[in-house]
Design goal:
Layout (H helix, E strand, L loop, with lengths): L2 H31 L2 H6 L19 H63 L4
Length: 127
Amino acid sequence: MSIFLAYFYWHYLERLKDIFLVMSNYVNFWVFFFSVKIVLRSLFLPWKKVESVPQKTGFDIFIWANNFFFNIVSRVIGFIMRIFLLCFFIICETVTLTVGIVSIVVWLFLPLIVAYLIIYGFSKNNV
């Protein structure tokens, strides 16, 4: 096998597979870093498991209403915080995929870019 064919085999097959592997590792990293599965399962749970429970026996409408609204507020805060976390996850995934796609495009055209720069450099009459 000639050196040119070996280079193109290495450049367009072996290293391209490695680039896709690195991209998939980064995508999987963000999924585990942000614990997306756990966050989606606990989307409507109270923030930091802070809940109010009645302290005395019997039924008092004011205590019940206070506990009820406190628990609702705690769940809303938990929902908002988890939504922000998911939005930041989506931003990180988008940036990672964008950088990966740009890297693949640059890698595919890199031999042409290098050849063009060499020809352009030798064609100028620079002193």
